[in-house]
Amino acid sequence: MAKRAAPEVNAGSMADIAFLLLIFFLVTTTMEKDSGINRKLPPMEDSDEDVVIKQKNIFTVLINNKDQILVEDELMEIKDIRQAAVEFLDNGGGTDNDGNKCDYCHGAKNPSSSDHPDKAIISLKNERMTSYGTYISVQNELVAAYNVLRDKRALQLFNLSFGEMQKNAKDVNWVGNKERLKEQISQIKKEYPQKLSEVQ
Amino acid sequence: MSKFKKKKDGGLPAINTASLPDIVFMLLFFFMVATVMRDNALMIENSLPSASEVEKLEKKNLVMYIYMGKPSSGYKSKYGTEARIQLNDKFAQVSEVGAFIASERATKREEEIPFLTTSLKVDKKANMGLVGDVKQELRKVNALKINYASIKGDVSRN
After folding, report:
1. Mutate which of A68, A140, A167, A198 to test chain B, going by most B C-beta atoms within 10 A?
2. Structural domains for chain B
3. Is A44 in contact with B20 (Cβ distance < 8 A)?
4. Can you spell out the DSSP letters for A129-167?
5. pLDDT at B152
6. How do the domains of chain A map onto residue ranges?
7. Nearest CA of chain A to the CA of B61: how many Å?
8. Could you tell me how many CB contacts below 8 A there are between chain A and chain B?
9. Would you call B148 and A30 a contact, using CB atoms and an 8 Å cutoff?
10. Which of A75, A99, A192, B44 has an alpha carbon within 20 to 30 A of B83's alpha carbon?
């Protein structure tokens, strides 16, 4: 008897099946990447010793129950916070703990405002009914104030903005001396340390 | 008889679709690989605030998520309209946050624990009282690296 060849499987509907699966995965895919504002909480300490910080070195921001923003006991709009914080941080009216003057500050050198960026602390307070959206807006403006100063300093020293430096440090394709770049980043971070405290 | 016969006009030739499945399969595999399935169903309203100074969270396996917000419409009758905490797939009390962090830590290798970040995914209409309580709990269990999840955008939309 003649051997018959196995009949060929009809693959015409293969595309349809693949399309079906494709559409399923298209619909279920979420490509979002998580992003947000990084913060570090202060560790729990039960020591009773109080560190004495001069009032002029603290920049108090309070958001009350009605989402009004009080900066140093004065009502302020969100858009003005950044400038106020920059002026406070960059004031450089005095010396740091080692007695060094801030030679890179461009501030007004007002003796009644902060002494040195190293000493300047921003204290962010909120009340229980403060809305989270407003809180994040204010946080964002305060972080932006630090970034403005760091950008300015980085442009002055290394002719590159701080944001770009950080981007380069993360970029694997970036050609250049990574070790030096990291040193430069930490130098700028040291000159304008982010001292932002969230008080309950 | 003419040598140059007029060509038969058969209309447009059919396009060969034999390689169509290959193309579709290629796309399919791309999406299959790129897909991250949602691991927990949200039972709360969760529209994140916008901020311009956001940083990306790098290592996804080193992130713990705490959701906060008002219960979504299906759960309103049962859980009320006040903002609540959601851990994994269920509503939780503030006191359960510490245990949640401990159980998350138990699933990670020991050397990874210092790098764990807690991502707070909080609805922008939630109040800070609840967030403050959670922050306090996190301090108690020494989970100090936190991230306020927000979308890149302008703060005026908050």
Report:
1. A140
2. 50-152 (3.30.420.270)
3. no
4. T-BHHHHHHHHHHHHHHHHHHHHHHHHHHHSS-HHHHHH
5. 86
6. 55-199
7. 12
8. 156
9. no
10. A75
Burial A117-137 (b: 16+ CB within 10 A, else e): bbbbbbebbbeeebbbbbbbb
CA distance B10 to chain A (A): 24
The answer to whether A133 contacts B140, with C-beta atoms less than 8 Å apart, is no
ipTM of the complex: 0.75
What pLDDT digit, counting tens, does each position of A172-186 carry?
A: 888 888 888 888 888
pLDDT digits (tens, 9 = 90+) for B56-75: 887 777 888 899 989 888 88
Mean pLDDT (chain B) is 84
Burial class (CB in 10 A: 0-12, 13-18, 19+), A50: exposed
pLDDT tens-digit series, residues A18-43: 888 888 888 877 666 678 888 888 88
List chain A residues with CB under 8 Å of B152.
Answer: 35
Residues of chain A contacting B122 with CB distance shorter than 8 Å: 132
At position A64, the amino acid (one-letter code) is N
Angle at B31 between CA A15 and CA A22, to 5 degrees: 30
